[in-house]
Design a protein that fits this description.
The chain has 28 helices and 6 strands. The chain has 593 residues and is of the alpha+beta class. A hairpin with a 5-residue loop joins strand 1 and strand 2. Helix 6 packs across helix 20, helix 10 packs across helix 13 and helix 20 runs antiparallel to helix 24.
Length: 593
């Protein structure tokens, strides 16, 4: 079916500006589909979406270990963070009456596979809607199809609604690619449909030599998309063999019926779709009405979070006409069981009041899940705390470092932010004043943030310059008398310095996590004693002989035992035993000689 007149006029104008591209491969009879694929892959901006899609889909396992890597993709995109939060707080996934504020917590609830599906859907949406005004409307239609599919999957209680969301998002991938990379040819296809009354498949074949679906399937294979996406692209309506194909086809046809044709009171397009799919999917008019309401509300929120304006009145009018055909009302609120945007926390803050609220909510959630009664693994708590620092600061980068097993150094464990992968490689420090400000803060057990609380020292200035930071902070995490690790955070050059309230917020987060760790140690209830951060905190580390020898030599050189014990978080009795063993070994060696 033809696009709305606004899109049609855009692409028709582009046909006058850009003449149809000559196919350089016609002489050697290269198939038209292969030619177009080569031309798309050669475009300068094409890798932007394929790299993110491949990274999110192919290089991360379906386990909790990949959540911290996924967190970096999610938290860099406001719209994606919001989508993850909204999904986790929906009726399908929510397990308690508490609203989830932390995206890390939400991702752990949803699981890596579901988050990957969300990430790829919205990364593709964000990439292509920026190419042209016409593509923005096409991506809106893709998102509507994705949300129609997801809503139906939830109503059918399928285990993974976000898989259907992914299938719906890429159902018209071929059309998006042609519209984005070949606007002149796309305009000709629309003209064939409009003026010659040709169907979409016939019109595309006459102009291109293949259908949109063939290109979409070929590109999805190139990206390494799961088989379910390929099934959705090639699905042939209610006669499709697999349920996932039937649902994707229904979602696409519903979008076409409601939003891709002008309202025609003489034709009940939605009823036609319903009559084709009602038996196969056990659908009623009420079901379709509810799907339309919820999907439109969700689509609007994604556009708002991406700061993309849409003609909401036009969408409401089109949906209103469909609702009238279905005999249903069209209230402004979303359907029952799907949370309204006002009940779900914002991903970032646009005002001081919003920032204060966000910090309070994130802190409260970290404190709650840190307690042993929450049942959450401590690794997850640490990731949530780091996210809270990153978003609530907000900071450009945030890193959590833990003590090494021999307690002689510090090594980065988690990181969030731009370029943090490279930063993590640098964050390994020996506990020596010569190692820089992170090690110094740990040895002193005092948090710092420079140059807010005081001016840079020369060492700190060089450290900041090496990392491209205009300001940075180190916040040691001390449980009882024991150094556990620290939180590092910074802002880039030319960024404004954080206020003291921001530093108080970070310290409050660390204090909340520390109290939870202490409570866990008191109750001795680790969930995964062999692999969790909790186990790392509980088990007495195995100190190397070289480390013990260095400590004893310092003691023999006159360093006070109590001061050394405090510095290293090692009991004085242990240090005395090491010294006794050292001297006994030295004496035995002298006797044997």
């Amino acid at each position: 079916m033809p696009l709305p007149p606004s899109v049609l006029s855009i692409v028709q104008n582009s046909a006058n500006v850009y003449p149809a591209k000559r196919d350089p491969h016609t002489a050697d009879e290269t198939p038209p589909l292969t030619t177009r694929m080569r031309q798309i892959l050669a475009e300068a901006d094409f890798p932007a979406i394929s790299k993110d899609a491949l990274d999110a889909l192919k290089h991360m396992p379906d386990d909790d270990a990949s959540i911290d890597r996924l967190a970096n993709i999610v938290l860099r995109e406001y719209s994606l963070t919001l989508k993850v939060l909204r999904t986790a707080n929906s009726a399908h996934y929510k397990r308690s009456n508490k609203t989830i504020q932390s995206a890390a917590h939400a991702m752990l609830l949803l699981g890596a596979r579901t988050v990957r599906h969300l990430a790829v859907s919205l990364l593709s949406f964000d990439h292509y809607r920026k190419r042209s005004p016409g593509l923005k409307e096409l991506m809106l239609l893709s998102l509507l199809t994705a949300n129609h599919a997801r809503e139906l999957a939830m109503r059918r209680r399928l285990p993974d609604p976000e898989e259907l969301h992914l299938c719906g998002m890429f159902r018209n991938l071929g059309e998006v690619l042609i519209a984005g990379y070949f606007p002149a040819e796309y305009a000709r296809i629309l003209q064939h449909m409009e003026l010659k009354a040709k169907g979409e498949g016939v019109a595309a074949f006459e102009v291109l030599g293949f259908r949109f679906e063939e290109l979409g399937e070929a590109m999805a294979k190139h990206w390494g998309m799961p088989e379910s996406v390929l099934t959705g692209i090639r699905a042939d309506g209610p006669v499709s063999v697999l349920e996932i194909g039937v649902i994707t086809s229904f979602a696409h046809d519903l979008t076409v019926a409601v939003y891709r044709r002008e309202s025609d009171p003489r034709r009940d397009g939605v009823a036609e779709v319903l009559s084709r799919y009602a038996k196969r999917l056990s659908l009623t008019r009420g079901d379709v009405a509810a799907i339309l309401k919820s999907a439109l509300e969700e689509t609007k929120q994604v556009f708002l979070s991406s700061k993309v304006s849409i003609d909401d009145l036009k969408l409401r009018q089109l949906q209103g006409a469909a609702m009238a055909q279905l005999g249903a009302s069209n209230p402004d609120q979303s359907a029952d069981g799907v949370p309204n945007i006002s009940t779900v926390p914002a991903a970032t803050a646009d005002s001081v009041a919003d920032l204060i609220r966000l910090r309070e909510e994130l802190t409260a959630e970290v404190v709650r899940v840190a307690q042993p009664t929450s049942g959450e693994d401590l690794n997850r708590v640490i990731l949530m705390m780091l996210e809270a620092v990153f978003r609530g600061g907000p900071f450009d980068r945030a890193v959590f470092c833990m003590m090494t097993p021999d307690r002689a150094g510090l090594k980065a464990r988690y990181g969030l932010g731009t370029g943090v992968e490279q930063l993590l490689e640098k964050f390994t420090f020996a506990l020596s004043p010569r190692e820089g400000p992170v090690a110094v803060a740990m040895l002193r057990r005092q948090s710092i943030y420079v140059p807010v609380e005081r001016d840079f020292t020369l060492q700190e200035l060089r450290f900041a310059q090496s990392l491209g930071a205009s300001s940075f902070g180190v916040f040691p995490v001390v449980v009882g008398a024991r150094l556990v690790g620290c939180v590092y955070c910074d802002r880039p050059w030319n960024a404004r310095l954080p206020e003291r309230a921001t530093l108080q917020f970070v310290r409050a987060l660390c204090d909340g996590a520390i109290k939870g760790i202490e409570a866990r140690q008191a109750t001795n209830t680790p969930r995964h004693a062999t692999t969790s951060a909790h186990a790392v905190l509980r088990v007495t580390p195995a100190y190397s002989a070289a480390f013990k020898s260095e400590v004893v030599i310092r003691l023999l050189g006159g360093a006070p035992t109590d001061a050394m014990a405090k510095e290293l978080s090692i009991a004085e009795t242990t240090l005395e035993r090491w010294q006794k063993d050292f001297l006994a070994s030295a004496l035995a060696g002298m006797k044997s000689g």
